[in-house]
Amino acid sequence: MKTTKYSSNLINQLPNNKPVVYEIQTAGGNKNYIGTAKRGRVTGRIAEHIGTIPGAQVKIKQFSSIQEARKSEAKQISKFQPKYNKQGK
């Protein structure tokens, strides 16, 4: 898992070559949002949240397929119930 600060400049340095599950976290490590991004859309997708979802850092975990990433995302959302994830989506 790779971690970086939640800022436009640093997000652009994240790997973009595989699908990911990403977590936007507070400084204390609480998960505010969990999402997936397709290969080639990682940095753009995370950048869309800047200004709307507060956070201090972003963690990503790469997967070999978007299906694997979405399955992992669903498990994590169910387990952690992040504040900014919409229920029943």
List keywords for this structure.
GIY-YIG_endonuc_sf, 28% helix, GIY-YIG domain-containing protein, GIY-YIG endonuclease, 89 residues, alpha+beta
Sequence-ordered SSE layout with sheet pairings:
Elements: E1 2-5, H1 8-11, E2 20-25, E3 31-37, H2 42-47, E4 57-62, H3 66-80
Antiparallel strand pairs: 1-4, 2-3, 2-4
**Count of discrete structural domains:** 1
Q: What structural class do the secondary elements suggest?
A: alpha+beta
What share of residues is helical? 25-40%
Q: What's the CATH first level?
A: Alpha Beta
Mean pLDDT: 95
Kindly identify the CATH topology.
Answer: GIY-YIG endonuclease
Contiguous uncertain segments of 5+ residues: none
Distance between the termini: 25 Å
Summarize the main sheet. 4 strands, antiparallel
Give the overall silhouette.
Answer: globular
How many helix segments?
3
Strand order of the largest sheet: 1-4-2-3
What's the CATH architecture? 3-Layer(aba) Sandwich
Query: What proportion strand?
Result: 25-35%
By DSSP, the count of extended strands is 4
SSE sequence, one letter per element: EHEEHEH
Radius of gyration: 12 Å
Kindly report the name of the CATH homologous superfamily. Answer: GIY-YIG endonuclease
Protein name: GIY-YIG domain-containing protein
Organism: Legionella gratiana
InterPro entries: GIY-YIG_endonuc_sf
